[in-house]
Amino acid sequence: MTPDFSQGPDALVRLLESKGVLIDPAWRDAFVNVPRHRFVPDVIWPRDTHDPAWRVPVTSDSDEWCSWVYDDYALITQVDDGTPEGLDGRGRYPTSSASQPSLVALMLQALRVRGGERVLEVGTATGFNCALLCHRLGADRVTSIEIDSSLAEQGRANLAALGYRPHLVVGDGAKGVPERAPFDRVLATVAAREVPWAWVEQTRPGGTVVAPWATTYFAAGLVRLDVREGAAHGRFIGAAAFMLLRDQRAAKGSIWDFVDEKSAGVESYRGRFDPSPLSADIAGLDLAVGVLVPGLAYRRFNAKDGSGEASVYAYDRAGSWGLIEYEPNANEYEAYRFGPRDLWAEVHHACAWWERAGRPGRERFGLTVNPDGQTVWLDSPGRPVGS
Ligand SMILES: C[S@@+](CC[C@H](N)C(=O)[O-])C[C@H]1O[C@@H](n2cnc3c(N)ncnc32)[C@H](O)[C@@H]1O
Predict the structure, then answer these.
(1) Which of 80, 100, 288, 366 is disulfide-compatible with 354, CB 3.0–4.6 A?
(2) Could you identify the atom of ligand 1 that is nearest to the CA of residue 242?
(3) Last residue of a domain, one of 211, 238, 265
C-alpha cells in the first residue's frame, strides 16, 4: 500500500515549532508547501545498530523509512561517494544526506532574507533545501551547486517534479558560481574547515554567508559572516554538524591506521595533564582546542571495570600521536608519545589559554575571512584565539 504522507509537512512544522526552531512565518509557509518525502530517495543508510562503524541500506517499502521522513532526522542518502564499500550495500562513510529539518530551518532563518535576495546554495543533494529557497524567494533568484553529478541529477529531477527550476550547477562549490555572482546570500549546506574566499568574494558587501564550520576535532559550528569590502566577519551562532566539502575531508581510516603503539621510537614519560575536560563536550573549549591544535583527533577508551581508568589518545593522522593512561585521583599517569608533535602538550596549552580567557562559550568566538585565509577570534576580530 502506498503510504499516505498528506499530513507529513504539517506534522513536521508542528514538530519544529514545538522545538522552538521554526519561528519565521514565511519559512513556515515554505515547510508546509514543500513535501519532504518527494526529496528523500528510495534508499537511505541509517547506522547499523550492531556495528556502528557501518551503515545499512533501508528502502522506501519499510516502515522505518516512512516514519523517518517527517521526523526531525538527518537521513543519509549516499555512502562512500555512491559506491558502498561493504557487502549488501552496506556503507562506511556518509557522503550525502537530507539534512535534519530543524537545522535546515535554523540555517534558512539565519540568512535573514526579507524577499527579493539572490541566493547561492552550496550542496544541492536531494534539492529539499533548494526547494524551500525557491518557494520563499522564487526559483529565478536561487542558484545551487553540487559536486556529485548523480546527486545533482536526482536533485534536479526532484525539484523539476514539483515545478521548481532554479539555476543548478554541477561542480566544485568551493569555487562558488562566479558567472551568477554577486549574490546577496550564500548558504553552505556542507561544512568548511577553511571558508573559501570565493563565497565572500561572490557576495555583495552588506550580504551574508551562513556556513557550517568544523575543525578535525570540533565538528559542529555554524557561522554567520557579514560581508564587507575585502573581508567578512561574524560570530558562531549555533551548532551544525555537516559532512565536509569534498576537498577538505580528513584522511580516511580508524585510529589504528594512525596509531601504532609498537612503533620503534615511541617515548614513554610520566604525564600530569588531565584529559578529562575533552570528554565533557564543553562548548567553547572544543572550539579553542580545535583551532589551537590543528589536525587533532581524539579517542577515549574507558576501562570496563568501573575503575574510571581510561586510555586517552590524541593523534593527527600525519605521524604524531600521544597516549595517556588516565587514572582518577592520580597526580601522574603513564604516557607515551610518538612523532614530531607533542600533541598532549599542545592540547594542554590550548586548555590553559581557554581557562585564562575566562572559559568563554562558543557564542564569544567569531571568524574573519579575507583573501589570505581565515582567523578565529574571541570577542572581536583583533583578538585571535591563542593570543
Ligand atoms: C548535507 S548534503 C546537502 C543537503 C541538501 N542541501 C539537501 O537539502 O538535501 C551535502 C552535499 O554537499 C555536497 N558537496 C560536498 N562537497 C561539495 C563541493 N565541494 N561542492 C558542492 N557540493 C559539495 C555533497 O555531495 C552532498 O550532496
Answers:
(1) 288
(2) 1
(3) 238
Ligand 1 atom at shortest distance from the alpha carbon of 98: 9
- Asked if 194 and 374 touch (Cβ cutoff 8 Å), the reply is yes
The answer to whether residues 188 and 224 belong to one domain is: yes
Ligand 1 pocket member 100 (CB < 6 A):
no
Q: Please say if the pLDDT value at position 3 is more than 90.
A: no
CA of 48 to the centre of ligand 1 (A): 23
Ligand 1 centroid vs 86 CA: distance in angstroms?
Answer: 23
Tell whether ligand 1 has an atom less than 6 A from the beta carbon of residue 99.
yes
164 and 277 share one domain: no
Is residue 263 located within the same domain as residue 185?
no
Q: How many whole angstroms from 295 Cα to the centroid of ligand 1?
A: 23
Could you tell me if 190 and 337 lie in one domain? no
Q: Is the CB of 122 under 6 A from ligand 1?
A: yes
In a domain, 147, yes or no: yes
CATH code (residue 261)? 3.30.160
For residues 320 and 260, the answer to whether their CB atoms sit within 8 Å is no
**Confidence category of residue 1, pLDDT binned at 50, 70, 90:** low
Using CB atoms within 10 Å of the CB of residue 285, give its burial: 0 to 12 exposed, 13 to 18 middle, 19+ buried.
Answer: buried
- What confidence score (pLDDT) does residue 219 get? 81
Enclosing domain of residue 305: 257-356
Reference 317, options 371, 372, 250; nearest CA is: 250
The pLDDT assigned to 229 comes to 96
CA–centroid distance, residue 28 to ligand 1 (Å): 23
Mean pLDDT of 190-195: 97
pLDDT band at 2 (very low <50, low <70, confident <90, very high): confident
57 lines ligand 1 (CB under 6 A): no
Domain with residue 196: its CATH number is 3.40.50.150
Residue 369 lies in a domain: no
Strand order across the beta sheet in which 321-326 lies: 267-271, 333-338, 321-326, 310-315, 297-302
The reply to whether 226 and 335 lie within a common domain is no
Question: Which residues, listed in sequence order, are joined to residue 321 by a DSSP beta bridge?
Answer: 315, 338
Shared-domain flag, residues 182 and 266: no
Ligand 1 contact via 143 beta carbon (within 6 Å): no
Catalytic positions are 99
Beta strands in 33-182 (DSSP E): 43-44, 58-59, 75-79, 94-98, 119-122, 142-146, 167-170
